[in-house]
Amino acid sequence: MTIKMVNMEFDxxxxxxxxxxxxxxxxxxxxxxxPNLCHIKELRGVGxxxxxxxxxxxxxxxxxxxxxxxxxxxxVQTKTPKVEEIRKFVTDLVLSFHPLDCMTCPKAGDCDxxxxxxxxxxxxxxxxxxSFNYELNDKSPFITIDNNYCTLCGRCxxxxxxxxxxVLDFMGRGITTKVSTAQDKPLHESGCxxxxxxxxxxxxxxxxxxxxxxxxxxxDLEKHESVCTACGSGCxxxxxxxxGRIVKVNTKESNGYICAIGRFGFDSLGSGNRITKPMKxxxxxxxxxxxxxxxxxAADALKKAGAxxxxxxxxxxxxxxxxxxxxxxxxVAGSANIDTPASSYAGGAISALxxxxxxxxxxxxxxxxxxxxxxxxxxxxxxxxxxQSLQEIDVMIRRRAQAGAKVIVVSTEKTDLAHHxxxxxxxxxxxxxxxxxxxxxxxxxxxxxxTADTKGLDALRKxxxxxxxxxxxxxxxxxxxxxxxxxxxxxxxxxxVLGTGISANEEASLQALNLALLKNAGVMxxxxxxxxxxxxxxxxLSAMGPGYAKAKQAGKSYSEMKSGMKALYIAGNVPDTDxxxxxxxxxxxxxxALTQKADLVLPMTALFEKHGTIVNxxxxxxxxxxxxxxxxESKDGVEIAAEVSAAVSKTKAFKAKDIAALVKxxxxxxxxxxxxKPVKAAAAKPYGMSTTxxxxxxxxxxxxxxxxxxxxxxxxxxxxx
Amino acid sequence: xxxxxxxxxxxxxxxxLAFFYHDDSKNxxxxxxxxxxxxIFDAMKIFEAIQAGRGSKKDAALLERIAKxxxxxxxxxxxxxxxxxxxxxxxxxxxxxxxxxxxxCTHLECAALVRYEIDPDKCTMCDKCRExxxxxxxxxxxxxxxxTGFTSYRVRQKRCxxxxxxxxVCPEGAVIVVEKEREQAxxxxxxxxxxxxxxxxxxxxxxxxxSIHDTVDAxxx
Lengths: 721, 221
Description:
The structure holds 2 protein chains of 2 kinds.
Chain A: E1 5-10, E2 13-18, H1 23-29, E3 53-56, E4 63-64, E5 75-77, H2 81-95, H3 112-119, E6 143-145, H4 155-162, E7 169-171, E8 178-180, H5 197-201, E9 207-209, E10 222-227, E11 236-242, E12 245-251, H6 260-264, E13 279-282, E14 285-288, H7 291-305, E15 309-313, H8 319-332, E16 338-339, H9 342-345, H10 347-357, E17 375-379, H11 391-402, E18 406-411, E19 423-427, H12 433-446, H13 457-463, H14 467-474, H15 478-490, E20 494-498, H16 506-518, E21 522-525, H17 532-537, E22 565-571, E23 581-588, H18 593-597, E24 600-603, E25 612-615, E26 621-624, H19 637-648, H20 659-665, H21 691-698, H22 700-704, H23 717-720
Helix pairs in contact in A: 7-19, 8-19, 8-20, 10-16, 12-14, 12-15, 12-16
Chain B: H1 9-22, H2 34-51, H3 58-73, H4 77-92, H5 94-102, E1 114-118, H6 128-132, E2 138-139, E3 154-155, H7 165-169, E4 175-179, H8 211-219
Antiparallel strand pairs in B: 1-4, 2-3
Helix pairs in contact in B: 1-2, 1-4, 2-3, 3-4
């Protein structure tokens, strides 16, 4: 899709900007700032604050810049006396009831109102001072709301509504309007997920992080770009520090989303359950030891096990760590048994993708554009803000749905996403995905769906079943299937999302890919770990070496390694704890159920202490630097792998500093065009796994060290272990 | 409007704006855009202050600014219409407004700007007004036939809240409303301008160096 550029003028400056953009955004691209209190990029403008008034040649009165779209030949004046007067008037009025506390206000330096008051040289309001004496709402964790400072811009309300959380709204009318939750309850009783998008949106200090007071102001903070590795989204964040201490975490993208774990979970870095020193098992108990001894124990165990040593690299490692880890396994320890947890919860999807799109098929998500989709087919996935699992993906889908896109939910239960008004729910019986999707496909073909790629279509047609048959097998009514098929046929840019409900099963995953290939739709297999795709690209798969090359020798897979290994080395957070090995080495950042069972625990850096590159579930590669020094004696995964390699074998050892260059050389692989792989449409044994349970199990260590745990509503038994 | 239209234009305009502001029906304000929701509220507050006798000279200018900017910056017609009402008031009844700011309501409606007095010629000393006054602002003694030496009825101004109950009950119409005496305006102390900049080295005929000196130069050439 090409964007049409138009020529227009801002303050006499000729510019070329995309057509249909709002004037505020268009002016920002050429470095002109139009003042505004209520505008948020990428959100529909409301024109409430009237600060962004501009004059356009040929128009009688000033118009708002946030609701007017760019057009060919427009001549915009952003600083005429008329609009300056309206801006002054509005700022003057807002200042008449906004406490002038800039001397102590934590938002000073980042406050829009302060900036505009300074720009328009308003020292104090010429109107009567007003105060409404609202009570400070500090009853809930993480976020405080002080309505006394509110400028009534409504950014928080719109952000909350647009991402589908729907907690904040206006209460009352006129100047006494108040931003509040339903029935004025505290946030934690009103279904708030504490994502903090409202904190990000607030132009003043009405909605703020709870512990922000006296913890540095904008000019005191040193900022670092980093990535949150708590779930598959791998969100880019900006970590702000004062005196070496993290005070807040923000999103990097404007109007981006990060969840409660990303924004407020940084307290887990210094929590009590952090592993600060290597630990070994002595007389059945874990006792602290030195790095030298720990490395010796690890090396001895690996040497003794030889080819019977197992290696598991979790997706929370960075590319560098994963590469070093597989190098340690394959080249130094001489074992082919290396795998990642993704091959268990998304094993079917991985082999299906490789079958349909070629060897590099795992990276197919990089071609899917979820942020422009007009139809999202969610198969077996339950991204949910309320249950705190894959929140960012839920927000992305909901934003599209809010913009009018249809969401087809294929699930065994009514998920949170299925409650959206634009959602079509196909609630099937467990294990009948292949049959249901075959029904949808035959209905779609009957609706007159034409594909450019007809290769293998005939074979696919033969394998499909009629809608009635699909309906009787899966328990979904014929009408529902027909509606879903019609919606899918009408879509222009559909995206198919594969969740853990089907991704463990290869046939179901193949059938989902067939559905996607029918319309040449984008495919997004959901990975639960931040760098699951990167770890696989780095060769941490039993059948695959770095750069999707076929491994010389296929080793045991993740589930096969659960028992019977002489030595098992697990790096990072994995969802399972039922591992049995003669020597169990766990490399982790926080104590969890798995480290309790380990024979040797190596302390690793966590979250913002890491640096390197990751490839998130969208297939986007992200480079980030270290934001926080490593805690106590914990070390980067690359260093640990290098030191272990030196302890195992002097001749084969590698150096930590060489890894980054080697990672750059790893091929990204070429994505195939995709071919149909017909599968038998029949009911199978249930194979679904719950995303929430898997994610909670994976992040158990991290979460139990953080206050965020308290806001996670779903209390799984896993967490009580 | 349920109430009878007020004769005093200041009061009438305030009532109109307040009705618009507080009306819960869909004809009321939507409270979406800032100039209308904040500006009209401030206009109401200025009117209230003027009617309470706390008006100041800059109020007229402020009202004018509100009328102009709400008209230009407002989002919808409804808000702009009410800016028009304000503008029409300012155009037609400016003298009334200025009189109110000085503390006089010639229409004798703005309670804080009037005095209640009892006309001793008309008063028959029936005591009805004293009985009805809830603020104990009227003092006097009921006339008993055949006795003399009664003090006449009078209103204690500091207690009177101008509620109007005494006017309603007086059978003779002896309670009268008069304009409050004009108070002497308090003269604001002149601001002393102090500047520490070097006057001797100022370039002459160039752009101003110090705004204070320029002001002084303008005042005392």
